[in-house]
Design brief:
Shape: globular
Distance between the termini: 58 Å
Structural class: alpha/beta
Radius of gyration: 17 Å
Strand order of the largest sheet: 3-2-1-4-5-7-6
CATH topology of the largest domain: Rossmann fold
Bound molecules: S-adenosylmethionine
Helix content: 40-55%
Strand content: 15-25%
Amino acid sequence: MLILYLLTIFLIIYAIFFIKQFYNIVFKGYAPLISTKKKILNKAISNIKINDGNVIYELGCGKADFLKLIETKNLKVKLIGVENLLIPSVLLKLQLFFKHSKIKVIQDDFFKINLEEADIIYCFLNNETMKKLGKKFLNECKKETQIISHKFPILDFKPEKVLREYGSKIYYYKI
Ligand SMILES: C[S@@+](CC[C@H](N)C(=O)[O-])C[C@H]1O[C@@H](n2cnc3c(N)ncnc32)[C@H](O)[C@@H]1O
């Protein structure tokens, strides 16, 4: 009986997650939750200049693999993930709590978060979102903020460099 209860709860949570994802993708144009491959993250990170005290954001962090990888390097940086989906955010916060991680997760729409503090921003989203984010970056980010976008370029921005890895492109911009 207990197993049946647990299974029902699990199925309900799963259904809520899928309905919310479907709603976000179809009606809000949000990117779905797909993680960046480890190889691509390694390449992306090895080509960023990270300094002590930097504030690093992963917008639409999902499992926050980009931030987790940076944390393994034991740098004196502030790591912030923003994810709008409730269930992945709660699971991620729990996982980070048990790992004593210093990564901060904000469960919200990143368009509502001010990015003036950001030194480095990582995104793996979609074309529509990158287009809107381009305007936000110009309005809020300081000069020299590094923006790294996997797969989707920012329309009207000229990348400093474009790297290829695993059949995919990584775009680097500086405001
Ligand atoms: C393609 S996944 C990338 C996950 C992770 N950054 C990675 O590279 O492995 C995109 C994520 O962005 C989230 N997302 C999309 N639009 C968002 C928004 N406006 N605010 C917050 N999160 C958003 C989605 O829920 C999804 O988890």
